[in-house]
Amino acid sequence: MTEAHKNDYRVGNDSFWSRAWVAPLALAGVGGLLAAVTAGPDRLGYAYLFALFATATFMLGALFLVLIQFLTASYWGVSSRRIVEVVMSGAPVVALLALPFIGGVALGKINIYDEWQSAAAHGDSESGTDSESEEHGMSELGASLAHAQDDGDAHEGDAHEGDAHGTEHSQTPQEAALHHRVVAEKTGYLNTKGWAARGIGYLILWSLIALAYFGWSRRQDTDRDPKHTLRMQSLAAPSLILFALSLTFASFDWLMSLEAAWFSTIFGVIIFAGSAVSILALTILIGMSLRNRGLVGDAINTEHFHDLSRLMFGFICFWTYVQFSQWMLIWYAGIPEEATWFHKRWEGGWMAVSYLLIAGHFLAPFFLLISRVQKRNLRWLQVMCVWVIVMHVVDIYWFIMPQAGPFQLQLADIGALLFVGGVFFAYVFWQLGRVPLLPVGDPRLQRSLNLHQIY
Predict the structure, then answer these.
(1) 238: domain range?
(2) What residues have CB less than 8 Å from 410, skipping those under 6 apart?
(3) Contact indicator for 279, 62 with CB cutoff of 8 Å
(4) Considering the entire predicted model, what is its pTM?
(5) How far is 424 from 297, CA to CA, in rounded Å?
(6) Total structural domains within the chain
(7) 169 located within any domain
(8) What are 51-105's pLDDT values in tens digits?
(9) CA nearest 220: which of 82, 348, 119?
(10) Which long-range contacts (CB under 8 A, 24 or more apart) does 326-335 make?
(11) Residue 137 is assigned to a structural domain of this protein
(12) Which of 178, 279, 334, 386 has a 20 to 30 A CA-CA distance from 133?
């Protein structure tokens, strides 16, 4: 019997993992101070949303991975599932970190959504157009945008400074009229009370599912009763449906509504794909550290890392597919209110970030992880997982920060990420030090321990 078996796969007195939570907690303190000192009131809202959502995607990806493993009754990932369960169990921590943001928006202290909040509170009083001018605006909108695009460089120097959301003042009256009408028609959904209530609902739902599954799995460690597995399998399908809907609408509410008139039905799928990529990369990194320190014996080995990396590779390709599909369909349709979202990510220095995502989030991982040999080279895989996580964080930054203006990485952005991410991962690392590192009571664990790849 190995030392890992004798210790019931626990961290024990390992010099690193028994105190691993201290480092992220210290970084959280430094990051919070940095953000508070360097951020202006407008920038802090964007920075905190970026940090909050980037951190939440790890938890959401973990929640998905646990549910899908129980839905499919798979055994290959059982030995690495406890890592994912611990990350998933951080849902209440994400909820606590999100409450100041939701409260700040609801109380008017955070003004990053002020366009639709103003429209919902006061009606479409700024449009100043009658129905005839709106109809004319709709018919002439395409030609106006084409003209604006052709002459964009000429007008750039004459344009007024944009507002906090980067609104372009070179819009024609027809474009502005249609923009205001679109925003006004969304106020039945996009209003402060509804937004805040839905946000709290998402957080409660994620926390309930995460804590229920984590609690049942932990109880199974003790009583070895297979009924817990059967219960989790039976609830996996409805839980996944609720998860998919809540993640999609949270993406709409928290990210898409930054550009109030813009919409994309595939947006939630893109966020989901990035979440899946991030948690798979994180699981590989933590699993490698535990294995290298002898804390899990050979229970998580090259065969398991190979499966995790193949799934990560697949979701990288899926992320690329849905990202490209969104861009291609918007480009092909040529609807101005849809195209403006991409314009903001192609101007003001954001073009370089867009190219970085194309090369770093798809091309580099695709060619550097496509081979079976590359996936089974654990040192190389470790480097690629770090790279993939960095690119995922850049991806979330790219979703949010263009709404704040031209590209300018600020200390407040880094500080907010260190604070939110530090608090969350301090909890995750602390929890890893308290529980068995494998779901020792799962009836399928033995099959997972004997996993062997033949291809």
Answers:
(1) 7-116+186-442
(2) 38, 39, 43, 47
(3) yes
(4) 0.88
(5) 27
(6) 1
(7) no
(8) 999 999 999 999 999 999 999 999 999 999 999 999 999 999 999 999 999 999 9
(9) 82
(10) 326/264, 326/266, 326/267, 326/270, 330/264, 334/142
(11) no
(12) 334
